[in-house]
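Sequence in, structure out. Go.
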Amino acid sequence: MAAFQSHEQLVSAIEDTAFERPPALIANAHITGLSVARALSAHDVPVIAVDRTGDGVAPPSKHVDFAGQVTYPLDDQAAFREDIEAIAEAAGTDLVGFGCMDEWVHALVDTEPDGVRLPFSDRAVIDDVLDKSSLYETAEELGVPYPETVPLTAEADVAEVTERLGLPLVVKPAFKREFEEVVGTNVIEIENEDDLRDVVDLAAEEDIEIMAQRRVDTARGRDHSLASYRGPDGETLSLVGNARVRNPLDFGTSCLVERSSEPAIEKRALAVLDETGYHGISEAEFVYCPDREEYLLLDVNTRPWKWIGLPVAAGANLPYAAYADATEAAYEHDGIEDARWVYLPDYLDLLATDDGFRDRLSRNDWTALVDGSFDGGGDLTTAVYRPSDPEPAYRALRTAVGGQEYYCAC
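Output:
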């Protein structure tokens, strides 16, 4: 467990430590960062977790060696770079950087801090993957299905757009995070032309690229993603995860994900990654469209994401595979097995509030969760709650009951 320190205290503590191998720098320090820390700690990698506040669930984990404050990159990239370089200098060895939300990834590749190795592609490649306009162009070239999409500019004819795509439709940004900072979400459902015009005007005012997309009447429980680490040489470690349950059920965040087998998804996602040349950890998201009887590509996240603990539990430790390539260490896995991942706060909320939701966990699953026997054995893993590492769950509980807040969901 690491107390969250000021930047000056963090640098001083690291300065007093001798590292036998390069530490991992994880930014930010919440649910995704916690999973990455646990994955790396399992291979004895020292972990430094940084964030703009200490309220995330990762700092109190026993798998985090140091935790402390750095300047939030969206506030001041130059100061962020200085903070990271001070940490690297204090460590006396290179750091291996893991950005756990888009703004942290962008900050690392944009500022290129001295003393930090990045186990993923440069900004130009990342932008080609994250920008839905260029991503869908690549998909079109490869014959990978995706939802019908229309770019929206300030001069867009909203009547023409709604006639083409129908109503309701959805509006998405080319880049998620900048839109989220303005409107608080990365997807807006549009019911009429006036609402569409309002969003177009707001995007133009904020200089944000957006697009309208035909609303896909997806099949609940059939969303799939390819979770992968693709090395600089093109070698890929991957598995397909099925988001069996979301909260809210139709368009919410994943709260129960299971390993699945969908060869078409793996083939299509890897084709996109190969074509773009992206290397690093990524999640390629697909939804199933009953009308087209096809899996449609939605996004590719070029970083760890909330349920990255699933591939780790299944035997594909994507964070350590990335770390090993960055440090020329060896990583071998013993094959991939079935696994399930659950984020209990959202899952329990569904059970408590949605009368139409049927529990997907068995009696044995629940007893294993209650008595702690799932921790270290079996095919079920969790996002935060681990009896062997209890402090993150306590931090999450305090957040859930209003004792404190955290600025980022994952």
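Check: The chain is about 35% helix and 20% strand. The chain has three domains: 4-120, 148-214, 223-302+307-342+344-382.
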